[in-house]
Write a structure and sequence with these properties.
- The chain has helices spanning about 15-30, 70-75, 115-120, 125-130, 145-155, 155-170, 180-185, 185-190, 200-205, 225-235, 280-285, 290-295, 340, 370-380, 410-415, 430, 435-450, and strands spanning about 10, 35, 50, 55-60, 65, 80-85, 90-95, 95-100, 105, 110, 215-220, 235-240, 245-250, 255-260, 265-270, 270-275, 300-310, 320-325, 335, 350-355, 390-400, 425.
- The strands form six sheets. Strands 8-7-18-19-20-17-21 form a seven-stranded mixed β-sheet. Strands 12-2-1-16-22 form a five-stranded parallel β-sheet, with helices on one face.
- It has about 450 residues and is of the alpha+beta class.
- It is about 35% helix and about 25% strand.
- Helix 1 packs across helix 17 (about 435-450) and helix 5 packs antiparallel against helix 6.
- It contains 17 helices and 22 strands.
- It has three domains: about 10-45 and about 220-300 and about 405-450, FAD/NAD(P)-binding domain (3-Layer(bba) Sandwich), CATH 3.50.50.60; about 100-205, protoporphyrinogen ix oxidase, domain 3, CATH 1.10.3110.10; about 300-400, Polyamine Oxidase, Chain A, domain 2, CATH 3.90.660.20.
- The two termini are about 25 Å apart.
- The structure holds flavin-adenine dinucleotide.
């Protein structure tokens, strides 16, 4: 038992956030009894590597940022071999053509105006308007605002529609005009309290020189290897296929009711880390922390589907790692990754397309063949003609990506303040959607329940 009287910890949700939390609990308290309660039949949540067409592919996330240290540090600690992409040059589909995505932008906000002009993504008049932005006066950031709304004021519509929207769409499956600048770009938002210029803010954060090394890495054997090793190293008792149904307060801590009605089980714990998406987290908190539950219930999610094709050997694809598609292009596909090219894998060419944006998920109601047909149609519209795939896989992710709407950070703070002692929340719904941010979120939740320091 530690200084806070904790010896039994339950973690609800066996995605990377929950597993990172479990491992941190083990690091801080080697004798802890840790139980990870996972509703699905496997660990990993949105990290899911599986066999497909003579190889392994990622059916969810495919890589992690290395400029944020948490994921790489964890993989290095566990001795996992990492791969860097063979190419990171992506394109964006604008004006009926594939154009190179300009280098050195923060989710589309340019730090390098020359690279933006050379990319051809904007016409000369729009480039000139963006070039003037650093000298244009404007109010300092006082209140949260949607990053696209702010950027339209600073740059005009073209940069938002052609560059920011597809980049934000790739990360959040949402729209620039709805996503909070404070939540999506917290460091830039802090700069904008002192300068009105988004270019000046982006430049000061990205530095003036070219940073060396790849931006992304992935695990050589697939991200599921990371999941399995984190789980094993945590030494937690892993309970699969047992959704947490209810959380009850007990005189000596907490009781989690898990499983279907006939096979209900109880897990007793001194502290509970709730590391599932915001909606189930909200349901679990309803009776024990209604204010926190109410705040979390406001976090919306977008559904997405990934369609992966294995193509006949020798199929020729456009150069680079893939294509981002602005919503304004009017297609259903929002991004295509030339996976085999991106990761320098010989053999069967693999491409994967992503569909589904927040509020526009009706496209996902189509059956698998219908989705595959849509992808072929949209590829053709972009000038990418592919032969009949030799294999197709469709992966649907309902409730895939949280939407950090304006005011997200305030709602989150309210939720955390309303949590009783012994409960903490972690996950993509709160502190960042990327894998490193999820790991940090899980670690922070573990710190919160195990140390006297209360971290909001
Ligand atoms: C298609 C896609 C591609 C992505 N690509 C990338 C990428 O390339 N790089 C990157 O950094 N990020 C990427 N992301 C984001 C990143 O993968 C996720 O944000 C992250 O993996 C979420 O981890 P998590 O543990 O917070 O949540 P999840 O992975 O959602 O895990 C939560 C777990 O909780 C379980 N659960 C839910 N309810 C209950 C309950 N009542 N009881 C018990 N268990 C429950 C779920 O089954 C799930 O296993 C991608 C996301 C998606 C959807």
């Amino acid at each position: 038992m530690n200084e806070r009287g904790v010896s039994r910890v339950a973690v609800i949700g066996g995605g990377i956030s929950g597993l990172a939390a479990a491992l941190r609990v083990r690091d801080l308290m080697p004798s802890a009894r840790i139980t990870v309660i996972e509703g699905a039949g496997r660990l990993g949540g949105k990290l899911y590597t599986d066999e497909f067409a003579y190889g392994r592919i990622e059916l969810g996330a495919e890589a992690f940022l290395v400029r944020r240290p948490e994921a790489k540090r964890l993989a290095d600690r566990l001795g996992l071999a990492l791969d860097a992409p063979a190419t990171t040059q992506a394109s964006v589909f604008t004006d009926e053509a594939l154009r190179p995505l300009p280098s050195r932008t923060m989710l589309g906000i340019p730090a390098d105006l020359t690279a933006l002009a050379q990319s051809g993504v904007l016409g000369p008049a729009d480039v000139a308007h963006v070039n003037d932005e650093p000298d244009r006066p404007g109010p300092l950031l006082r209140e949260d605002i949607a990053v696209g709304v702010l950027a339209r004021q600073r740059f005009g519509n073209a940069l938002v529609d052609r560059l920011m929207d597809p980049l934000l769409g790739g990360v959040y499956a949402g729209f620039a005009d709805e996503i909070s600048v404070r939540a999506a770009l917290p460091q830039l938002a802090a700069k904008l309290e002192h300068t009105p210029s988004m270019v000046v803010g982006a430049r000061s954060l990205m530095g003036s020189g070219v940073t060396s090394g790849p931006v992304f890495n992935t695990v050589h054997n697939g991200l599921s290897a990371l999941v399995e090793l984190v789980a094993a190293t945590s030494g937690a008792d892993i309970r699969l296929g047992l959704p947490a149904r209810e959380l009850q307060r007990r005189p000596d801590g907490w009781r989690v009711i898990v499983g279907m009605s006939r096979e209900r089980q109880m897990v007793e714990a001194d502290s509970v880390i709730i590391a599932c998406p915001a909606r189930p987290a909200s349901r679990l908190l309803r009776s024990v922390a209604p204010h926190a539950a109410e705040s979390l219930a406001q976090i919306e999610y977008a559904g997405v589907a990934l369609v992966t094709f294995a193509l006949p050997p020798g199929t020729s694809l456009p150069p680079g790692s893939g294509v981002l598609v602005p919503a304004a292009a009017g297609l259903d596909v929002k991004a295509v990754t030339f996976s085999s090219q991106k990761w320098g894998r010989e053999g069967t060419p693999i491409i994967r397309a992503s569909l589904g944006r927040f509020g526009q998920e009706r496209v996902l109601a189509r059956d698998d063949d219908g989705l595959a047909e849509l992808v072929i149609r949209d590829l053709l519209a972009m000038g990418i003609k592919v032969p009949t795939p030799i294999a197709t896989h469709v992966q649907r992710w309902g409730g895939a990506l949280p939407q950090y709407f304006v005011g997200h950070l305030d709602r989150l703070e309210q939720a955390r303040r309303a949590l009783p002692e012994g409960l903490a929340i972690a996950g993509a719904g709160y502190d960042g959607v990327g894998i490193p941010a999820c790991i940090a979120s899980g670690q922070r939740a573990a710190d919160q329940i195990l140390t006297r320091r209360v971290i909001r």
